[in-house]
Amino acid sequence: MNVHLTLEGRNGLAGQIYRQLRAGVVEGRLAPGERLPSTRELASQLGVSRKTTLDVFERLIAEGYLRTRTGDGTFVADEMTRLSPAPPLMPAQPVANPVWDLLPDALPNPHAAPALEFDFAGGAIDKQLFPFDQWRRCVNHALRVQARGRGVYHDPAGEQDLRMAVSRYLSFSRAVVSSWQEVIITQGAQQAINLLARAVLRPGDVVAMENPGYPRARAIFAALGARVVSVPVDADGLVVDALPANARLIYVTPAHQFPLGMPMALERRLALLDWAQRQGALVIEDDYDGEFRFEGRPMESLKGLDNADVVAYVGTFSKTIFPELRVGYVIPPRPLAGALCKAKQVVDWHSCTMTQTALAKFMLDGYFGKHLRRVHKEYAARRAALLAGLHRNLSPWLTPLPSAAGLHMAAALADGVDEAQVVARAAQAGVGVTGMTAMYGAHPVRPGILFGYGGIGVDGIRAGLARLATAL
Questions:
Q1: pTM
Q2: Those residues with Cβ within 8 angstroms of residue 296's Cβ, 6 or more apart along the chain or in another chain
Q3: What mean pLDDT comes out for the span 35-46?
Q4: pLDDT tens figures, 311-341
Q5: Most-buried pick from 228, 234, 408, 429 (CB within 10 A)?
Q6: Which of 388, 397, 409 is nearest to 451 (CA)?
Q7: How many Å apart are CA 49 and CA 288, to the nearest integer?
């Protein structure tokens, strides 16, 4: 790589080059053993004579900063003793918004902890189930499309083919009727929620969230300066009567409440829509894993029931394909569509067009539907194994909560059982589980354990639960 040197004027060029190279070596920016450009290359880069660079290199070699290997080049000396540069005077520096200091517990790094033998991580999926051969053909198609296109920015709302595929899929599988023009492609559900909040909220606005609820959504609203009010849930979902009268936005997970798992009852859905219509509030319906339903009849989405156009429907491919894809979508109320596209353009202009083209082909050619049918059977078997193990091995400590869908299951702890101790003993036994206390935004808190089964097979579930029972 080129060495970055700055020359001022045409006087004392050798001295300027010498001082900057020496400082790079002494301060450690040029690492021991690192190869430098040849004197000819450096002279060409800097627009100086080769004699100038030869003189500099000879002086640095004589002083022990550089060494040469015949026929190989010039390198930073391995035996150089680094000198710590004098600490600079500390100027005034930018200061982060204090709100970020309040969020570390809400945003755990999934890779911070060491890998465990039996990991019941929430939000994980099994990539071994994904048809990568078919996906590779779709990616190759997208590369050919990219090669034919112009090198320009695209529509912030996304590629038309993918928006059409998402609209058709939602209409057929999720009973969410929309035209492709209403679909906006995002970098996962997380960005969709962020864009909606940016489009609607002002500092100090009230946001109502389920309690317990999705910590990362709570973090988004808090980071934008909103006042987040936790609203209790019961067996029928969000308690609409407990909503704060001045809420400007309500975030809910009606298909599979996060993290407890129950669906929102039809009466509650209708009551929530009526409340939002009267108050002029936006309802964000996060359907993060509703594709995987294992019991009962599917309920109509809030968006499907919405006659007043107050619901923004958010979905993602993180659970159906894999999280690294970073593709989600949102169907906002029509009055918000323009603001949402502007927010998307301001944030990152648009999502990766090659990924969008590949995913569109994957969906429109029928691969996506086949994949969903195949993994649904596998995840159903894993769910059954988890439920059986909780009832059999872990019943003295844990009671699974009713959950008809999704890729995780919550379990309440028996009285007197400490959540943190269960998580710690599980980790010591090589079993990864998640406590639910951090998912509550207000009291009362009901301690419990979250078991994800998307990333662990049936045999692993059985062995892991047996290991956990022994540890407890």
A1: 0.85
A2: 263, 404
A3: 91
A4: 999 999 999 999 999 999 999 999 999 999 9
A5: 408
A6: 409
A7: 63
SS3 81: coil
Cα separations in angstroms, 135 against 129, 183, 357, 360, 374: 12, 23, 11, 11, 15
Q: What mean pLDDT comes out for the span 80-99?
A: 67
Mean pLDDT of 204-211: 97
Here the tokens at position 241 are 């009567």
Do the beta carbons of residue 134 and residue 367 sit within 8 Å? yes
DSSP letter for each residue of 297-324? PPPPPHHHH-SSS-EEEEEESTTTT-GG
Report how far Cα 373 is from the mean position of its chain's Cα atoms. 25
User: What residue type is 104 in one-letter code?
Assistant: P
Per-residue confidence (pLDDT) for residue 300, from 0 to 100:
86
SS3 content of the chain, % helix, strand, coil (to 5): 45, 15, 40
- pLDDT tens for 278-309 read 999 999 999 999 899 998 777 889 999 999 99
The C-alpha atoms of residue 223 and residue 99 are separated, in whole angstroms, by 6
Q: pLDDT tens digits, residue range 102-134?
A: 665 545 555 555 678 999 998 899 999 999 999
Encoded tokens for 305:
């029931």
Q: pLDDT value at position 104?
A: 57
| Neighbouring C-beta atoms of residue 107, cutoff 10 Å | 10
Which tokens belong to 156? 């912030």
What is the rounded average pLDDT of the residues 215-227?
A: 94
State the maximum Cα–Cα separation within the chain, in Å, rounded to a whole number.
Answer: 86
User: How is residue 454 written in tokens?
Assistant: 């998307």
Residue 413 bridge partners (DSSP):
398
Cβ atoms of 199 and 336 closer than 8 Å: yes
Tracing tokens 């080059």 back to the chain, one arrives at 17
Residues 135, 139: Cα–Cα separation, whole Å: 6
Contact at 8 Å (CB) between 38 and 54?
no
